[in-house]
Design goal:
This protein is mainly beta. Helix content is 0%, strand content 50%. It has strands at residues 3-7, 10-13, 18-25, 33-39, 46-51, 58-60, 68-73, 78-83, 92-99, 112-113, 117-122. A hairpin with a 6-residue loop joins strand 5 and strand 6 (58-60). 33% of the residues are buried.
Length: 123
């Protein structure tokens, strides 16, 4: 049974930083592409960042480029999202996702999902 468990969310002031973690189990983590998506109230789930199985390739939404960094530690079966210079519009539930297919920017590209962690950025 595949499990993805996010942690690290919370309340932060605008301009602050948070580091999200996603611990994976039940899958061959080192073979899976991993991604972060987010969903704000009343909005569709949107792509944030993705990383290839080996970490050699990454992809970011334009809105987070230069501020967010995705990384992974295959020895720990964990993927991270470092978020700097946070803005109120970054407030959302952030989801971790895993794909056996490869890097993708759409939710349908991903096979497994975590339950999400809330990130709230105050102005």
């Amino acid at each position: 049974q595949v499990q993805l468990v996010e942690s690290g969310g919370g309340l932060v002031q605008a301009g602050g930083s948070l580091r999200l973690s996603c611990a994976a189990s039940g899958l061959t983590f080192s073979s899976a592409a991993m991604a972060w998506f987010r969903q704000a109230p009343g909005k569709a789930r949107e792509f944030v960042a993705a990383i290839s199985w080996g970490g050699g390739s990454t992809s970011y939404a334009d809105s987070v480029k230069g501020r967010f960094t995705i990384s992974r530690d295959n020895a720990k079966n964990t993927v991270y999202l470092q978020m700097n210079s946070l803005k109120p519009e970054n407030t959302a539930v952030y989801f971790c996702a895993a794909s056996n297919w490869g890097l993708g920017g759409l939710p349908r590209h991903y096979d497994y999902w975590g339950q999400g962690t809330q990130v709230t950025v105050s102005s």
